[in-house]
Specification:
heterodimer, A: about 425 residues, alpha/beta, Aspartate Aminotransferase, domain 2, 2 domains, seven-stranded mixed beta sheet, four-stranded antiparallel beta sheet, about 40% helix, B: about 150 residues, alpha+beta, Sufe protein. Chain: A, four-stranded mixed beta sheet, binds pyridoxal-5'-phosphate
Chain lengths: ~425, ~150
């Protein structure tokens, strides 16, 4: 491991940056320093080209026509599914379900898998650091069916103790829904251990892999996780595409999600029968071009090297953490051991929005606010934080820009 | 440093945000409303005591938010005391124009001068909502609507 990315000659970040046209633009007359990658990552030209090439030469609707292009498009669409299968090391192709994003993937599990199982008083275990998209679908089941949400706390450093998950599970627990990596604290959870604990008690586990899938390799078979949700746009892919991995054992009992074309076997006036997974869960014309873009993004990640990218990002985050801590009056929120490359911080006496505004004028894009994690904001008793999140294309110079922009903010607020 | 930042975070704004005037609940209030910006979590409650002749006898606010929203609320309470309800509404109209970078012809020149310190917000479209939150809450209080929201 390299402590300083400048010491990583093999990792040619300058060359990689040339793959991302947007990184060379300016904002407010300054070079863009894009550190809002946890909200959405920028797209390499390889992804944009793959989508353009597909659209200009092979595009048609999928699973519908007998004509040449329909067949070609369907082949690319299914090839992308196998690409995702490899990315997650899923055992079966049909375990990969296309959705429009991580949010829809989790809603799908809530509605298709869990809703039919919930009796009043049944429990869902989740952590206080979940994103709203891994909270609100369970609130629906609370409101509509009387489910009870059981919250697992984190430590002041942001660490989640698997033993606390174990303690929260009762005979009434129907699901553990937990993040793989927090989008606010950066905490990576001990997912494999949590799954082992939950399975011992016969409880399935859904992991929100939105951030986790970006910063490290994911092996759903090794994790033995039941459901794994992720989103394409944080993985350098396009918007409008997400993935639900669902273990084959659950696919048979999951009821259809939305009704429409593609998801049926036969429709008559009196009756309807449904297609098998994954199409059972993919009603209507899917985001076809985006699946091709996502596959290209995963190829790009492999081309960069997932371990190399992660090591680079971690080194940048470590450096930035150290530099921010050297400033007076900066408090970092989330210091779990082995955390991923994002930093939530507060400059004492400066509201997150004022901080984000000042940083923006210095060319530095960070997110300021509650990060769709209001339960966590309440837990740490902050109205919001600023968050700098690192991607494979960020540089040491950008860490410098972040730190000096925070210094400007301190000067403004005296 | 960017000069629009200096305009936005003028000393007087920072002073209002650090030492907000008329801060805290008002026991004698007969109108109250809460303003909430769900996007950034800013919250401000505005209390008004309006007398029989539609005059704002007293006013206060409480809440938490960014420097812009707190300063704007503080400045507003400073200006409203002793005004008629009609004047308060005219001030609000002028203020909304000012922070959007539009002409605020309805303002008397001394009011305009006072509010001018917030005009720097017009260069920050994403922050206009912060500046207007307290004013919307004030209006909701006068109209007895209970709550206002800016998104
Ligand atoms: C941890 C986490 N979960 C879920 C989501 C939701 O992803 P999407 O909005 O792409 O559905 C996000 C992204 O905002 C996230 O960071």
């Amino acid at each position: 491991m390299n402590a300083d990315p400048k010491l990583t000659p093999a990792y040619d970040v300058a060359a990689l940056r040339r793959d991302f046209p947007i990184l060379s633009r300016e904002v407010h007359g300054r070079p863009l320093v894009y550190l809002d990658n946890a909200a959405s990552a920028q797209k390499p030209i390889q992804v944009l080209d793959a989508m353009a090439r597909f659209t200009t030469s092979e595009y048609a609707n999928v699973h519908r026509g007998v004509h040449y292009l329909s067949g070609a498009a369907t082949e690319r669409y299914e090839e992308a599914r196998r690409r995702v299968q490899r990315f997650l090391n899923a055992e079966h192709e049909e375990e990969i379900i296309y959705t429009k994003g991580c949010t829809e993937a989790i809603n799908l599990v809530a509605q298709s898998y869990l809703a039919p199982l919930i009796q009043p008083g049944d429990e869902i275990v989740l952590s206080v650091m979940e994103h709203h998209s891994n909270i609100v679908p369970w609130h629906f089941l609370r409101e509509r069916q009387g489910a009870v949400l059981k919250w697992v706390d984190v430590s002041d450093l942001g660490e989640l103790d698997p033993a606390d998950v174990a303690r929260s599970i009762t005979p009434k627990t129907k699901l553990v829904a937990i993040t793989h990596m927090s989008n606010v604290l950066g905490t990576k959870t001990a997912l494999k251990e949590i799954v082992r604990i939950a399975h011992e008690k016969g409880v399935p586990v859904l992991a929100d892999g939105c951030q986790g899938a970006v910063h490290g390799t994911v092996d759903v078979r090794a994790l033995d996780v039941d459901f794994y949700a992720l989103t394409g746009h944080k993985l350098y892919g396009p918007t409008g595409i997400g993935i639900l991995y669902a273990k084959r054992a659950h696919l048979k009992t999951m009821r259809p999600y939305q009704g429409g074309g593609e998801m049926i076997r036969e429709v008559t006036r009196a009756n309807v029968t449904y297609a098998d997974a994954p199409m059972r869960f993919e009603a209507g014309t899917p985001p076809i071009v985006q699946t091709v873009g996502l596959a290209a993004a995963l190829d790009y990640l492999d081309f960069v090297g997932r371990d190399a990218a992660t090591a680079h990002e971690d080194a940048l985050a470590k450096l930035a953490t150290q530099r921010l801590k050297e400033l007076n009056g900066v408090r970092i929120i989330g210091e779990a051991k082995g955390k991923g490359p994002l930093i939530s911080f507060e400059a004492i006496g400066i509201h997150a929005h004022d901080l984000a505004t000042i940083l923006d004028r210095e060319g530095v894009a960070v997110r300021g606010g509650h990060h769709c994690a209001q339960v966590l904001m309440e837990r740490f008793n902050v109205p919001g934080t600023a968050r700098a999140s690192f991607a494979l294309y960020n540089t040491v110079a950008e860490v410098d820009a972040l730190v000096s922009a925070v210094q400007v903010a301190r000067k403004v607020f005296g | 440093m960017d000069s629009s930042l200096r305009d936005l975070y003028q000393e007087i704004i920072l002073d209002h945000s650090r030492h907000p005037r008329h801060f805290g609940p008002l026991a004698t209030a007969n109108h109250m409303a809460e303003g909430h910006n769900p996007l950034c979590g800013d919250r401000v409650k505005v209390y008004l005591k309006v007398d029989a002749k539609d005059r704002i006898e007293d006013v206060s606010f409480e809440g938490r938010g960014c420097a812009i929203s707190v300063a704007s609320a503080s400045l507003m309470t400073d200006m409203l005391k002793g005004r008629s309800v009609a004047e308060a509404e005219r001030l609000m109209g002028g203020f909304l124009n000012l922070v959007k970078g539009e002409d605020a012809a309805e303002l008397e020149s001394d009011d305009r001068e006072t509010l001018e310190v917030m005009a720097g917000v017009s260069a920050f479209p994403m922050r206009v909502k912060c500046a207007t939150l307290a004013w919307h809450a004030m209006k909701a209080a006068l109209d007895d609507e209970g709550a206002a929201r800016t998104e």
